[in-house]
């Protein structure tokens, strides 16, 4: 006899009223004692609801399979096609291993899901180092002459090797920041404070850039440092006044040195000008004396040539010219050799001449 026809409606071991073998069958969530819901009943209800939603009473039709395949193909195509922006480069990975080729900007295809893509921006970036954080400056450094300086600088860099940038170092940007700060401290520690303040900023910046690039290449970060600029270098605020006094003293020293050099150049230029003038005058005097001597010599030679032609005539002419030059400015009285009537040879003729010259003057005065 079937079990469901037994008296009491129980199973083979009794327990009617839809009970189990021990008369404790499954109960719904609204059971009298609040027992947990039946899992089979929940699954059955879910199947019923799915049948109501799907067309055709829940049966799997070829159209449904086609829709599912089309959706899966669209999802695969969407995942397989990617775009690289103009300022980016992409690296494809096959089973997690990077390919040697780089994907240029544009639309690309890869076999997803066995291949994935990692992108890296190659645009130039700027990082500022030594800025004030939390009221304290991170750019305080010790110079080579045991002075403390506060240096603020910026580094311009970009990605040169996307594969190295993406996979060699965990955080390349932070690595560059730490390397740049360490390199600046190293270079400043070898130089006096005056170099970083004003004397050799450009040289320090170039040394730091080369040091950073060398370290980044050793780490394999794939980054290239394009430029490094020292924005500001100043003493700490606590000793700024003392440094200002030193700067003013150095400026005064430079001014005094410049003034002394200017005065020295002025005096030296004046002395050189006077020396050149004296040399020119000496050269002119020398030239004049030489020209006069050559002229006199030439005149003497010409006179000698004329004398050689007629010695007697020349001798007489020279005598006459010499006597003319001697007697021209003296008082003289010419007396013939035989004398004349009333002439006494030893008469003081010059005194008589003076008296004869003064007598008309006295006569003229008396007439007045």
TrEMBL record:
Compartmental location: Membrane
Regions annotated as coiled coil: 246-288
Compositional bias per record (Gly residues), positions renumbered to this chain: 7-19
GO molecular function, one term: peptidase activity
UniProt region (Disordered), positions on chain: 1-40
Sequence intervals crossing the membrane: 53-78
SUPFAM superfamilies (UniProt xref): Band 7/SPFH domain
GO biological process assignments: proteolysis
Source organism, top-level taxon: Bacteria
Pfam families, per database record: Band_7
UniProt domain Band: residue ranges: 79-247
InterPro entries: Band7/mec-2_domain, Band_7, Band_7/SPFH_dom_sf, HflK
Membrane topology: Single-pass membrane protein
Ranges of compositional bias, category Low complexity: 20-37
Keyword list, A-Z: Coiled coil, Hydrolase, Membrane, Protease, Transmembrane, Transmembrane helix
Subunit structure: HflC and HflK may interact to form a multimeric complex.
Family: Belongs to the band 7/mec-2 family. HflK subfamily.
This protein's name: Protein HflK
Organism: Nitratireductor rhodophyticola
């Amino acid at each position: 006899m079937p079990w469901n026809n037994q008296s009491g409606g129980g199973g083979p071991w009794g327990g009617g009223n839809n009970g189990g073998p021990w008369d404790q069958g499954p109960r719904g969530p609204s059971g009298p004692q609040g027992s947990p819901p039946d899992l089979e009943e929940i699954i059955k209800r879910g199947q019923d609801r799915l049948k109501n939603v799907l067309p055709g009473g829940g049966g799997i039709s070829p159209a449904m399979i086609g829709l599912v395949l089309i959706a899966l193909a669209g999802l695969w195509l969407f995942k397989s096609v990617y775009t690289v922006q103009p300022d980016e480069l992409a690296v494809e990975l096959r089973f997690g291993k990077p390919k040697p080729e780089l994907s240029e900007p544009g639309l690309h295809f890869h076999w997803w899901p066995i291949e994935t893509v990692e992108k890296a921006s190659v645009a130039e970036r700027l990082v500022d180092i030594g800025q004030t954080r939390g009221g304290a400056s991170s750019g305080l450094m010790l110079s080579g002459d045991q002075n403390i300086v506060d240096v603020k600088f910026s580094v311009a860099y970009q990605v040169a090797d996307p594969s190295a940038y993406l996979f060699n170092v965990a955080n390349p940007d932070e690595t560059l920041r730490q390397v740049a700060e360490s390199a600046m401290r190293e270079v400043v520690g070898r130089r006096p404070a005056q170099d970083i303040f004003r004397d050799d900023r450009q040289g320090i910046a170039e040394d730091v850039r080369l040091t950073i690039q060398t370290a980044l290449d050793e780490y394999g970060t794939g980054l290239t440092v394009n430029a490094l600029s020292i924005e500001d270098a100043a003493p700490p605020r606590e000793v700024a006044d003392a440094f200002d006094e030193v700067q003013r003293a150095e400026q005064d020293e430079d001014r005094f040195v410049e003034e002394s050099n200017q005065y020295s150049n002025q005096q030296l230029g004046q002395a050189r000008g006077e020396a050149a003038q004296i040399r020119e005058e000496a050269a002119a005097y020398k030239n004049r004396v030489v020209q006069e001597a050559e002229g006199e010599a030439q005149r003497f030679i010409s006179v000698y040539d004329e004398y050689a032609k007629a010695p007697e005539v020349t001798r007489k002419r020279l005598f006459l010219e010499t006597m003319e030059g001697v007697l021209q400015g003296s008082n003289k009285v010419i007396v013939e050799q035989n004398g004349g009537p009333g002439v006494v040879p030893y008469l003081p003729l010059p005194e008589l001449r003076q008296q004869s010259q003064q007598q008309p003057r006295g006569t003229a005065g008396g007439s007045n």
